[in-house]
Fold each of these.
Amino acid sequence: MVKCSECGYENIDGLDYCDGCGAKLAAASGEGGAAVAPAPEAPVAPAPEPAPAEPAAAAAEAPVSSDAPTGDITPPPSAPEPAPAAAPAAAAVASFKAKLSVVRGGRKGQEFHLEDGNNLIGRWDPETGSFPEVDLDQDDPEAKVSRKHALLRIDGGKITVEDIGSLNGTYVNRQPRLSPGSPVDLKTGDEIIIGKTFLKLVVDPIS
């Protein structure tokens, strides 16, 4: 069994993508890498020997000459304390919300609000009981959309889409068919074609 690193779903061996969420399985290729030996520890330099102690001061102070200046001696000003280090800047937070809107084929005007992370595009699978975030089952009477068709991902303010081995392919802005497993960047207004359903990406800033 191959456990999905995204959702924890236990998949049977040989699958490229998770049956639970559609994410690519890290162990699908079956390539075993050689174990990496831990890096040797750097040798520790011996501690420096302590400096010899200063000779003890004479028990009796030497008599002060009458010619020596008198009066208080002002000590040198102390060095200013360093200013505290500035706190690290807060990590950037995505300040937008995104959705897919059906513009052609199926229920025109139907909207699917997208979540941070993985958003599976496809159709409900009665065998596994998985529901994709973008479920086109009612928009695809001819079954042109695969149950696990494409994966749209929102991560760190970046939006990408990739085909995950669909039968009829995934297209962006009517360009050539996407190669499975090769995500492409998306921006607001881009058009994604899944089967015979045309979806438009809409990105709205959060006020």
Note: The radius of gyration is 34 Å.
Amino acid sequence: MRRVEIPKENGKTRKLGIPTVVDRLIQQAICQVLSPIFEKQFSNNSYGFRPKRSAHDALKRCQANITEGYRWVVDMDLEKYFDTVNQSKLIQTLSETIKDGRVISLIHKFLRAGVMVGGMFEDSPEGVPQGGPLSPLLGNIMLNECDHELERRGHRFVRYADDMLIFCKSRKAAIRTLNNILPYIEGKLFLKVNREKTQVAYFKEVKYLGYGFYTHKGEGRLRIHPKSVQKFKDKIREATGRSNGMGILTRKARLNQVIRGWVNYFKLADAKNLLHKLDEWIRSRIRMVTWKRWKRFRTRFENLKRLGIKEEQAWMWANTRKGYWRTAHSPILLIALSNERLKRAGYLSLMECYSAK
């Protein structure tokens, strides 16, 4: 496999192992045969990388648990889960269901194939390499035992891949649950729990799949977590940077792509007020980068006149010494590049996409 590292939020990197084309084809074939077999065994509380199940379904289950009074949460974090899966334990689990030794042997060969890092071969004695079609299924198979153990103990929980929340009715019960399940995960499944990130918390303090939680009239509700908002703003800043070299059409396409995708993912949240504020901020970014693009005094003067600004005011603002960001909030640019004009130019707004959900 070819090693590729992609950046994570915390500044570290996620290691991917990209298989060759032939290996990807065969892995996909194995996956299509094994998925229906293991689907029958998987828990109803597991939502990641499964047919007809999504992150939105997992979040709705979290809402239901909160509404029913389970408001203390064990936020479980498995340290480098895919990189630390015990291959012997995984093969043993597979062998309990799959009786054809050739299939087991082939999967084992994929796991032990090794990776090419900078042209040098490295062995892969542990872990399930992320990047191949088979790895999500193998990840779910490995954690399926944990799911059934939690069900056997009568716990309410939601798992999406290796992100897991266990819901309890009190802080004391949550602490007891965490202390009881840790030996099982580390002793029986040979997985490593990140003690620093794993926590017992009240549901309002938890971030799950980019969302936060709150209640209204006793009902569990969803909001967009502040960290998700910050990530979104960073993407918009990147697309509307004054010196990123993007053309008008490229920038518009990129902005619309980010806005449409973000709203589609966060459409379950109650976020009208937040989206109104973000829309205003995005439009200011567009005005700022447009003013920067006009550059010369003559260009600014002519464009302002063409957009309906009186000649005297256009002359005055074309000569302004104010910075780009301050000018973007000026009454002149708010008129010249009005919300309606930006909409006609093809720029999407968050509220439009959200209202159409």
Note: DSSP finds 16 helices and ten strands in the chain.
Amino acid sequence: MEHKSFQIETSLLQLISPEQAYSYQIVPIGSDVTSITFKTASENISSLKQELQVVLGKEILLLLETEDNLQQYLNKNYRKSNALVSESLHYSEDFLLKIILEAKNIGSSDIHFEIFEHTSRVRFRIDGKLIEKYVVPITEYAIIVNRIKIMAGMDISEKRLPQDGRITIDTDLSDFDIRVSALPTLFGEKIVLRILSKDTTRIQLEALGFTKEELITYRECIKKPNGIILISGPTGSGKTTTLYATLKELNNDNTNILTIEDPIEYTLEGINQVQLKENIGLNFASTLKTFLRQDPDIIMVGEIRDGETANMAIRAALTGHLVLSTIHTNSAWATISRLIDMGIPSFLIASTLTISVAQRLVRKLCNHCKKKEEISLGLFPKNSSIPENLKHHHVSVGCEQCYYTGYSGRKAIYEIIPIDKFLINQIKNNVLDIESYLEKEKIPTLKSNALELIQQGETSIEEVYTLLTE
């Protein structure tokens, strides 16, 4: 182990909980069948050793470490929870529940259970990146998988086909749902748990990452009584959160809002939400047909995946409804090409599309440790030009505040194109090159917004590198 990195193997980390590590001010650095070796900065070695032997049931060896180094070890390897865990759950007695609650409390979005030939592991996705948290004995892996499948209402005897399920966690302190996906792999089933929060108090358009001008433009478009609002971007770019924030703003006692989602990630009071179930024919297109007979004002379709769903969304917009949805494209304007590829006539797109939005989620640099450096040409992609006013940038370093990742939290960046009369004519005539128009109208693109974040020192070049290519 390299001392400077302060990194400890996952198999050692899981010997104690984060609470124990911080409470006793210890970090494990070695173990065998009968003993565990810890580093500590405590001067009271004798009493600490006795207490740990009682708590952990093993011979304890303690090595002295400096206070500063010990804090580096703790902060880099053990992430403190944001909330307390209810004692009624017997947290320490249930490994699976412990993992789920730990992931929820530290802000993880997904939990991955994976098995290989000689080992199996558990990883958490935090701020968009996967971090290994536990190593699980091969002999225990099947037991954990079966427990998950039972909790999710899945068939434990079926190990050859993919399965989906749902778990509801309802405790004194936590109330949330989990979407479960099981996938057969070479050495066993891989399970992914997506944590779905029911808490919508922090979902506000102002908090997502819109600039003042973008927010004004977006709000003007969503106030229109009909038309289609499309949000594009890759998986995990925050599209659904933007849709929920939009629905929350539009939701009132005079409006009938219907949604078809896969999955329902947030529960919104006053909105009629439908969970997609492909296996019984409850898909986006068929549900949209029913929605039109439910006297809706606003319809939200989780995703436009095919021509049939796109056609139904267009039909709903043409008959006087406001339709919100997501689509997988790389930019706001590429959405038009994608709809044409799905078989939608360009004149119908021009008649119904109100605004096209592209977005990405970008990790923010930690304000406590980011470092300012001068710009050099090699930092940018070969075909990307560096703005003249960009003289400096910031790089990630890592400190105890950000658990030595160099980043803390994420924000969305947007590319917003309202469809005006000029663009309506461009779409009708299949003229899809509008770069000069965007420059003339000074409409910020994903690239220009990414450069602005670099300029402000909010993110690193590395984090937005793929957005900087022209």
Note: The radius of gyration is 26 Å.
